[in-house]
């Protein structure tokens, strides 16, 4: 279907807004923090589970157990909402803060993330940035991922938990990885809808999320059927970041090793050309303004004749310019209209020059100010 999953959209909006309707007990005792106790290796996951150290060591390459056991995932990646395992406890805000204060706990959390990435055929190559690449056995693991759709739910849980624990940069890389594999390389067709409906909208950062939506739109075929962002805004959008938006896209192109994305490079070059064109247009506009002012000054300096006639003629000229200014300020004009106004002013100034109407410094200041407003 080309229609967006609006139930997913509402669920993820609630997550991104930090569950505004959720009320938690205050002053929770550490003894009641089951998720924290599990990560401290004090408690085995339930039912019939292991302590986390045993799980991380003995299940590292045990893909069959990781696939068939459905109890551990809610303990490894707890959320502030209930899941299918009724013996798992929802995560609390106090637990999140306690997690972040413990270096030992956060190290185990990253190891748990690496365990699941390996299960999906992915390797974390930089713990600092969160950069990812395919594992050597990616083809086998991708086949499993395409076959068992419940793993899409697990990945959504992992992404949400990464955001809760302060690993938003890990989120961005993981979502970008799946968008690349589903839309560009087309190796995970059965993950495509989940990547667009769920994975993409776990990103809490509005700027990162917009860039990823734009990236997805670029590679979605046909583009006319893309329903995860307004087409009018996507056509006008330019990726933005605290650096240069265009350079950020060039960096994004290198995030996934082995990625062959010619279209991103073409879009980058096109955006650069558009930006150069706009800069040139702005510069030309400034030059045109300076030319008009220079012509005005020339005609003022060369003016002469009878003073009374000059005063009467200048008053009429000032009224005409004020009328032109009001018309320009009253409506949003395009470039062609602005140029037409400038040519009209040039003609008027040339007439003034021929009849020698302007003389005093006050006259020069007034006419320059009005002309400046018209040019703007």
From TrEMBL:
<feature type="region of interest" description="Disordered">
    <location>
        <begin position="245"/>
        <end position="265"/>
    </location>
</feature>
<dbReference type="Pfam" id="PF04664">
    <property type="entry name" value="OGFr_N"/>
</dbReference>
<feature type="region of interest" description="Disordered">
    <location>
        <begin position="298"/>
        <end position="357"/>
    </location>
</feature>
<dbReference type="GO" id="GO:0140625">
    <property type="term" value="F:opioid growth factor receptor activity"/>
</dbReference>
<feature type="domain" description="Opioid growth factor receptor (OGFr) conserved">
    <location>
        <begin position="29"/>
        <end position="233"/>
    </location>
</feature>
<dbReference type="InterPro" id="IPR006757">
    <property type="entry name" value="OGF_rcpt"/>
</dbReference>
<comment type="similarity">
    <text>Belongs to the opioid growth factor receptor family.</text>
</comment>
<dbReference type="InterPro" id="IPR039574">
    <property type="entry name" value="OGFr"/>
</dbReference>
<dbReference type="GO" id="GO:0016020">
    <property type="term" value="C:membrane"/>
</dbReference>
<protein>
    <submittedName>
        <fullName>Opioid growth factor receptor</fullName>
    </submittedName>
</protein>
<feature type="compositionally biased region" description="Basic and acidic residues">
    <location>
        <begin position="335"/>
        <end position="351"/>
    </location>
</feature>
<feature type="compositionally biased region" description="Basic and acidic residues">
    <location>
        <begin position="317"/>
        <end position="326"/>
    </location>
</feature>
<keyword id="KW-0675">Receptor</keyword>
